[in-house]
Amino acid sequence: MTETTDFRVCLVTFPDRETAKMTAVKLVAEKLCACASLMPGVESIYAWQGKTEISSETLLMIKTQQNCIQAIDAKIRELHPYEVYEFISLPVIYGNADYLNWISESTT
């Protein structure tokens, strides 16, 4: 069985690019993540309050460490406009050692 590292990739969807970008800038400035990549044009289809919804969203992919996850979630809770927002943290099983070192040096 492969062990995971202490590094994480987090996924968060936003209703628009500007809100996602503002959040990414704050996360990087506060050293909660090394990098946050914006992927506009994501089409999300989901169940909400008994109906099927279709929305154009921007996906934010956050590269960080496990010890920053709770602080990232708290910051997103503070900034996110959705009542229920997506926040999923995925473990990194393997990565380029230089890149992972950069994440470690860039986060608190």
Topology:
Elements: E1 7-14, H1 17-29, E2 35-48, E3 51-65, H2 69-79, E4 88-91, H3 97-106
Antiparallel strand pairs: 1-3, 1-4, 2-3
Q: Shape, please?
A: globular
Low-confidence stretches: none
Largest sheet: 4 strands, antiparallel
Secondary structure category: alpha+beta
| Residues in helix, % | 25-40%
List the secondary-structure elements in sequence, H or E: EHEEHEH
**What integer value in Å does the Rg equal?**
15 Å
CATH architecture: 2-Layer Sandwich
Euclidean distance between termini CA atoms: 29 Å
Features:
Alpha-Beta Plaits; alpha+beta; 4-stranded antiparallel beta sheet; 38% strand; 108 residues
Can I get a quick summary?
The chain is of the alpha+beta class and 108 residues long. The chain has one domain: Alpha-Beta Plaits.
Commentary on this structure:
With 108 residues, the chain is α+β, with helices and mostly antiparallel strands. The chain has a single domain (12-106), classed as Alpha-Beta Plaits (2-Layer Sandwich), CATH 3.30.70. It is built from three helices and four strands; from the N terminus they run βαββαβα. It has helices spanning 17-29, 69-79, 97-106, and strands at 7-14, 35-48, 51-65, 88-91.
